[in-house]
Amino acid sequence: MKRIVVLFVAITAVAGFLAIAPPASGHSDEESAPISEITIPIGYRDWRLISVAHEEGKLNDFRAILGNDTAIRAYRDDKLPFPDGTIIARLAWSYVPSEENDKAFGHQQSFVAGPPTNVQFMVKDSRKYTATGGWGFAQFTGGKPRNEAASKSCFSCHESAKDQDFVFTHYAP
Amino acid sequence: MKRIVVLFVAITAVAGFLAIAPPASGHSDEESAPISEITIPIGYRDWRLISVAHEEGKLNDFRAILGNDTAIRAYRDDKLPFPDGTIIARLAWSYVPSEENDKAFGHQQSFVAGPPTNVQFMVKDSRKYTATGGWGFAQFTGGKPRNEAASKSCFSCHESAKDQDFVFTHYAP
After folding, report:
1. B169 vs B150: CA distance, rounded Å
2. pLDDT per residue as tens digits for the range A158-167
3. In angstroms, rounded to a whole number, what is the distance separating the alpha carbons of residues A49 and A97?
4. Class of A24-164 per CATH?
5. Span B24-161: which CATH code?
6. Residue B85 near residue B70, CB atoms below 8 Å
7. Which residues make beta-bridge pairs with B136?
8. How far is B40 from chain A, CA to nearest CA, in Å?
9. Which pTM was predicted?
10. A137 vs chain B: nearest CA distance in angstroms?
């Protein structure tokens, strides 16, 4: 929980899926009217790992889902719904083949994280975000928040994970 | 660096690739003569994330590479060779499709971490492991160390990453 401190001010838009997102073609980083004051949590890159994922198709990305202490505690204690204060971060990178790994294996089979694409956050505040299951959603690309139009689909997609308090990701032991 | 403390005694075999491994058919968890005293580091599951990977083929797994504080510091400072005390952990899980994610997307595209397969460690001690580039290698499946015969290939494979101090994984920002 130390080092690599990412500081951000003036975050305007809200959006983002956790471990899930609409096709890349729908992505945009233009700013729009603020619909949340969610900012990039300081030190999120140091958070502990919840799990990993890969999306094929247009997204074609690698994902790591990290959680703050409250999130990790809830996962390990099988505690649902997640308590207020939970923040779950979904980092994503391009899904790229690794020539150097393939060389060691003797054939093509290895894929690694390429350049980062975007980072998404789910913030639990049951009083602030009553309309969206108690969760606020945010996505940032290169530090810039996603626009509002592209954000609308967040909660509607996460609603299918209602039985898991709207969170798709399961803890990987 | 707290919680989920994994304690081990009587570790006998040494082995393992980091972010790379021979075909699953070559795996075995039978114990053999001790060739290292590497044990599973306490609290490694709480270590910070270095990167993620996926191996196709017989391995067909998802990987998360975590590092202890010394490892993370070296990565972020671009410090090579890694200093003594560095430990890099490679966790692996089965690579499985996620029906619930696919349902939210409306089509098949999502893969997540299934049951854990094994965990591997690279331990830097330039005096103890002079014959293998300063690294000790170890793999554990269900807490049991890998047998010696299957371990021989570790360093010979990692030798191809000599320019990166025998470590395949790059840091994912």
Report:
1. 22
2. 999 999 999 9
3. 23
4. alpha beta
5. 3.50.70.20
6. yes
7. B123
8. 15
9. 0.80
10. 16
Q: Chain B residues with CB inside 8 Å of A93's CB?
A: 52, 172
Buried b (16+ CB within 10 A) or exposed e, A121-136: bbbbeeebbeebbbbb
Query: How many angstroms separate the CA atoms of A22 and B156, rounded?
Result: 43
Mutate to test the interface with A, among B5, B62, B77, B109 (most CBs of A within 10 A): B109
Query: Which one is predicted more confidently, B34 or B167?
Result: B167
Amino acid at B28: S
Domain ranges of chain B: 24-161
Chain A: give the shortest CA distance to residue B35, in Å.
Answer: 24
Alpha helical stretches, state H, chain B? 69-76, 99-105, 148-151, 153-158
Q: Do residue B98 and residue A53 have CB atoms under 8 angstroms apart?
A: yes
Pick from B41, B51, B50: nearest CA to B73 = B50
